[in-house]
Amino acid sequence: MSDFETSLAMSASAMKAQSMRLRLASENIANNDTPGYRRKTVSFQETFDRALGTNVVKTGQVRLDQAELARIYNPGHPLADQTGSYDGSNVDLIVEIADARESQRSYEANLKMFDQARQMASAALELLRR
Amino acid sequence: MTISPVAAAHLYSVAKPATQPDQEQSGTAKAFAQVAADFTQTLQAGEDTARAAMTGNADLPSLVEALAKSELAVETAVTIRNKVVEAYQEILRMPV
Q: Can you give the pTM of this predicted structure?
């Protein structure tokens, strides 16, 4: 496999990883108001892909953030205990939106690299044409 | 000079093997066969991924990657074919 194809595969795997990250960010935002919800995070790791014969980016196991759940005071809520409050989610909207934006930027960077590898391969072929 | 039919037939049969392809594959032929096999495999992989994407079993980046690879492979094959045909025509135009 040529270096151009390896670079295409590498960028595509990174884009897949970023879309997984964006998916988790949207899950977290969607469950912002779910009582007892813990935000999900995922780590990236470089793994060797036997079929491609090169290293690619893969997402690791999805983990739950063990940060403390927010206590929400609302005596009328069905889940409220004696103190009149219940466990909310530990999602911070600002963090999630920043994460989603960062994943978008990384995706764009990988898309640009993908396009560049493709253009470089095409440009080399262009020499053979007249 | 007179050419007897028997001598002509003999000379023809002697000259004929030169026009036949080599039975044992040379290094170049093997390399070309390998390139053709790789090309077919790339196209096949592209089609498989496209089919999987249509049925919802493949994600978008994989589809784009497979199609870009197929595109590059076809582009390469077409360019090389054009070069080969061009060289062949160049030989045909040679005054004999």
A: 0.76
